[in-house]
Amino acid sequence: MKCPKCGSQQLQKNGHRRGKQNYRCKECRCQFVNAYTSRGYSKDVKQICLRMHQLGLTSREIEQLTGVSRTTIRNWIRSMQHSSINHLP
Ligand SMILES: [Zn+2]
Asked: In angstroms, what is the span from residue 24 Cα to ligand 1's centroid?
């Protein structure tokens, strides 16, 4: 786990929010919820799927290649489009 803002691993557990683990960064003091482990897919898998989408593959093709369900891929694409922070390089 890393802070999404500053990349620090100095994290402090800060209770739960809507059933998800909430963290506070000791470096920049920002708070965030662990969104990656709840679905069972790693951050790498998510980035690979989003990269495939950017290269023009459909969610069905990505599902066949990675084994990640289409619904999850569409949710990732949607959250990426709605997010102001782009995690892809
Ligand atoms: Zn931080």
From this structure: 8
Q: How far apart are CA 50 and CA 71, in angstroms?
A: 13
pLDDT in the model for residue 64: 93
DSSP state of 39: T
Pairwise CA distance, residues 33 & 23, whole Å: 6
Rounded-to-integer distance, Cα 50 and Cα 44, Å: 10
pTM: 0.47
> What is the distance in A from the centroid of ligand 1 to the CA of 58?
34
Give every CB contact of residue 60 below 8 A, 6+ residues apart in sequence: 70
